[in-house]
Amino acid sequence: MELKGIHHVSAITAIAKQNYHFYTDILGLRLVKKSVNQDDPSMYHLFYADEIGRPGTDLTFFEIDRAGHTYQGNNSISLTALRVPSDEALRYWENRFSENNVLYQPITEQLGRKVLFFQDPEDQRLMLISDQNNQGVQAGIPWDRSPVPTQYGITGLGPVKLTVPDKTQTERVLTEVMNFRYKGSYEPYIAGQPNVDVYETGQGGTGTEVHIEERTDLSREKPGRGSVHHVAFRVADEVELLAWRDIVRSARMPNSGIVDRYYFKSLYFREPNGILYELATDGPGFATDESVEKLGEALALPPFLEDQRASIEARLEPLNTKRD
Question: Does a structural domain hold residue 322?
Answer without folding.
Answer: no
